[in-house]
Request: fold
Amino acid sequence: MIVIAGWIELDPIKRDQGLIDAKPYIDAALEEPGCRAYTWTADVQVSNRIWVYELWDDEDSLAFHFAEAPYKDMGAHLGICGITGSEISKFRVDLEEPVYDPTGTPRADFFTA
Reply:
């Protein structure tokens, strides 16, 4: 699994409408093969920031996404919204476990491995 996570900063006047107008691109990504999650949210503490969170099954799924028109169109859309900065990373997940153990206790350690 691959996690994409990070932030994009936009012109604060255009951020909220930019998120609303991005819905068709987000919806298209969610329909792509291997996409488990794809969401952008407004940061309630930083007026010009949106948070990006995506989950992909594998590199092939992510490569397919990057080659599709909605991804390219999203880039153009963000340009119109006045990008002022971004920091987005990808993470390859090699182990997945629940946060809570069978007793409902949150665990920082990987307890089932």
Q: What stands out?
A: The beta strands are 2-9, 35-42, 49-56, 85-92. The first strand starts at residue 2 and ends at 9. The longest helix spans residues 69-80.
